Amino acid sequence: MAEKYTYLLLMIFTLSGPLIFSFDKRVGFFKKWKFLVLPFTSTALYFIVWDSWFTKRGIWSFNNNYVLDFRLLLLPLEEWLFFFFVPYACLYIYEVANYYIKRDVLKKYAYSINLTILMVVSATGILNINKAYTAFNFISAAVLLAVIQFIIKPKWLGRFYVGYFISLIPFLIVNGILTYLPVVSYNNQENLGIRIFTIPIEDTIYCLLLLLMNTTLYEWLKRKGENIA
Known about the structure:
Elements: H1 6-21, H2 37-56, E1 60-62, E2 71-72, E3 75-76, H3 77-100, H4 110-127, H5 132-152, H6 157-180, E4 184-186, E5 195-196, E6 199-200, H7 202-228
Antiparallel strand pairs: 1-4, 2-3, 5-6
Helix pairs in contact: 1-3, 2-3, 2-7, 3-6, 3-7, 4-5, 4-6, 5-7, 6-7
């Protein structure tokens, strides 16, 4: 019976450290909470609709042994929490990295990194248009990456990629647990079948899309708040 709390406990664990240390006076992440509401709700809406649709089509599924019985739009409660707790933890990592890594170490390379990922996910998504997770995930990411590359052109892009690469470590640990048990199972006919241990390679781009959407809105609101102040 206790195993039904597995996903919930994993989400609580994901949030707990960043939440506790948000009150550290040096980084002061708690002072930026007012900039989180719009990013979290907007991106959660997008991903929840996507998630629900994929669950309905059997592109992925949730193991009832490891999740609570509550469902909304076919998704367990813990999956809803994922789209708030994971971005919170990753934006906390982003701000901590910004504070402690004073130099923008990827500034010179940020747009080259972004363009390279854009080209790879665009080509892969188009060439695998028959694989729903690969195609939808990669093409969604490609659209946002193109907007970042050619329209928004943010100064924070290098710092974003530092935060993203650091965030991949805990993200892959959490996803590794989810896919090893498995709490979440994937229909391999709908992805490339390439795994990082038990994790579909697509999840790294899924993470990139989730974090980049949140960071873009978060930085826009911060800048807007600074201008008003």
